[in-house]
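RETRY 2/3 - previous attempt timed out on the joint model. Re-submitting the same 1089-residue input unchanged.
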Amino acid sequence: MRFTIQQIAQSLGAEAAGDLELTVTRASEPADATADALALAMSPKYAEELSAGNAEAAVVWPDADWRAMGLKAAIFAPRPRMAMAGVTVMMDAGQGEGQGIHPSAVVDPTARIGENVSIGPLCVIGANAVIGNGSVIGPHCVVGIDVKLGENAHLREMVSIGARATIGDRFRAQPGVRIGSDGFSFVTPEVSGVENARKSMGDSGDAKAQSWMRIHSIGAVEIGDDVEIGANSTIDNGTIRNTVIGSGTKLDNLVHVGHNSRVGQDCLLCGQVGLSGSVEIGNNTVLGGQVGVADNLFLGAGVIAAGATKILSNVPDGRVMMGYPAVKMETHTEIYKAQRRLPRILRDVDALKKAVSKLTSSD
Amino acid sequence: MRFTIQQIAQSLGAEAAGDLELTVTRASEPADATADALALAMSPKYAEELSAGNAEAAVVWPDADWRAMGLKAAIFAPRPRMAMAGVTVMMDAGQGEGQGIHPSAVVDPTARIGENVSIGPLCVIGANAVIGNGSVIGPHCVVGIDVKLGENAHLREMVSIGARATIGDRFRAQPGVRIGSDGFSFVTPEVSGVENARKSMGDSGDAKAQSWMRIHSIGAVEIGDDVEIGANSTIDNGTIRNTVIGSGTKLDNLVHVGHNSRVGQDCLLCGQVGLSGSVEIGNNTVLGGQVGVADNLFLGAGVIAAGATKILSNVPDGRVMMGYPAVKMETHTEIYKAQRRLPRILRDVDALKKAVSKLTSSD
Amino acid sequence: MRFTIQQIAQSLGAEAAGDLELTVTRASEPADATADALALAMSPKYAEELSAGNAEAAVVWPDADWRAMGLKAAIFAPRPRMAMAGVTVMMDAGQGEGQGIHPSAVVDPTARIGENVSIGPLCVIGANAVIGNGSVIGPHCVVGIDVKLGENAHLREMVSIGARATIGDRFRAQPGVRIGSDGFSFVTPEVSGVENARKSMGDSGDAKAQSWMRIHSIGAVEIGDDVEIGANSTIDNGTIRNTVIGSGTKLDNLVHVGHNSRVGQDCLLCGQVGLSGSVEIGNNTVLGGQVGVADNLFLGAGVIAAGATKILSNVPDGRVMMGYPAVKMETHTEIYKAQRRLPRILRDVDALKKAVSKLTSSD
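RETRY 2/3 succeeded.
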């Protein structure tokens, strides 16, 4: 597809200058740009590459001297990543899904498929499932019985949604997402070593060896509007109530959300984050990659946890956390600096002991 | 389905009181209960919600004054989570799998399918695979050649089982489970930097850059009875011998079991646990979420590792572990408390140095 | 298949002795060997098992007295794991894939399928996809539009490759691999708490609650020759440029490679490693299991990171790293030893304070 600079600037709500009728078909990094590409160069650090390259049009920083860099047209981006959002959505060439229901799909006759829905090859749509208007279901997806999926969803290939999940509008699922797996919930007939160790903070007591009884998940998964879930992430069903993901929340790849957890609105859970069971998280909270949250904890709104933070106790609103176990980031930094000095302190303490011992004996 | 209070109490082996002929069709949290729901309120903390809600029947704590909370019938649960196991198995509405072999499934004519087996849409069953009586294979599963799967298995959608795996009875696999992926095993023609660094504890030496040769996995995966594996978890084939998961062991989501590892019986491996190659684990051991175990280690029976523990050396029977590197939980707590005091100690040591220096010079 | 000792020795480029016409059909551990098995006993520690077992032929250590252990033939392995590579590739019984295109596969008529390609049951091959000669595509794979897959690839079951990925020769993908998921890239209209916290190292400032705008991934994934990717691992598309995996690099299971990252040649990324966005890694670097790398970092060539290391800053060539945050392994060892001594140091400092206070007052 071909866009004029005018069209792109309008879509971004941005100022533009130069030949606004110039057209481009793709976006590129400044160094790789050809004449048909819009170079994305939203910072002065790209000035040299831009000058050296073949771009004729670019998105540039606000006061860029675009003519000096050999451009015929420029779009000015006050907030670079916002411009990135606008340009990439226009230029996305997509996955080539077809229209309508592919003949190889297995769709239960009781399923209610909305208008302008695309269902890819070899999908399975269960009994009484509802799929909202305009939704696109990629190849090899499984939508379980009694699932309600909203409008304008986009499922990539091999997504599975278990029975009775309810999902809002504009849902996006990357390949291999698992919604509605059973929760990991087991119990021993008598008190177990784990229960003892949790109570005593470290002593598993004299619990005998026992087998595990399964607690079934009779709750489901409930997802708001505008949620996106990354490749091969898993969201378990709740035990009795539902596991909940709030509207506007985004999960990265390989994230694990345990049963009964409730994640607020507009949160980000980065790659490989793990929430064990019954975690509650407020709105606008951001968990960095590989963060872990122990079970039954409350995290407030606007919490930020740096990558690899392991959260073992409740966190109030707005706190920035780091470490294992997680502490306030400034505390972590203080502890960490002290740790780096530790070997020297050991030597200091040894020297002090000698000096004091000498003083004491000579006293 | 509709159950009387009498039926449920009998199934739980629990005492009940009130109108035992009252019927319910589902279970719910106390606050959400309607007249057709059995409220699960196994602790006095639910008393208020129960009184305020519309439940007519509930599972309650042993000495609960159920009439005062407006109930017509009550079941008494001495061990709440055991009651949860009993109620949820009765109330589980399942995934709606059909009966028999779906016409879209691709079943090799040499596969031996037991009685009352359900094979979902678009499954692939390989040559000489054996599937035991009463097993339910969800949609989009792949069962490889020469696989032996026991009786009464329940595979959710999109489970894959590689060639020659042997699996006991009552196996449960959540969506996206991968059994029998090849092990991660490579070798360089000459000694590599990693080999040097492991020997010297930190020096990769002068190993030259080399490419990796593949060691194929000619072992398979061997799984006992009553095992459950969580969504998108992966279990690699062994190199020569089999990778083994003992009877009664349960794995959560996104768990990685490396080649040649042998996990004992009745263990729990929580979400995102990773076992590298050739790890051996005794019976009844519990690894919390995101625990990692380095290769070639032995963990005893009844070991408990708190969430995010990274185990870098062998662990004897019954030990409770925490930290990175893992230490006994009580040692971890002691070190951690000391760490929190570290910044103050630094100031103390500085003050001591000044004081002693003054004393020494005035000496 | 049946091999003579002669054939195996020749294939390994190794010396052999005894009855070179003896045949075996499989490899086994020394203790499990039967007369048709080649025992793999490349270290003197297996001497006893070998003598006790039923093996007639074995791969043994260089100066092994094979006749004394009851063997009729022996192959001598100077580098055991290299021998393992050679023997296992010969003995690998494979997954039983068929020849040609299975009739249940959905192959777009514009796809270009090479010679001697096997496409398994229920695969989906998109428009304009190219599959090189000799490639084997297991059951239930999805190859997207405009994908270029080289020669002699081997995809296990349920692998998905998103639109426009380009992949070299001899690619191997374990079950459930996801290539070409969209990157995790979002932006708020105004400055977010995360941006504030990163700048201030811990203060999220007064950023207001905002929703996330999506940055689409219009780049793809680019993979060199001889790459292998483990089960359920995920590799995201780049935002503008491609995400790149260099030739000869191997990824284990459940690894996450974020958008724009570029991994060099002949690297190993072990189980559950996570690379956030825009990470660059040199050649021959090895990251142990559960290692995490924060976004926009550079790791040099020949870097080694021990399991569970969390890398939060750039790492120069050849460095061996450990810890969270990652430091040089020898620094980590020093800090760790000091930490273990911490509780004692606390007591020492308290004693010193008392002693000095006494000295000062008596001064």
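Chain A touches chain B through 78 residues (CB under 8 Å). Closing ticket.
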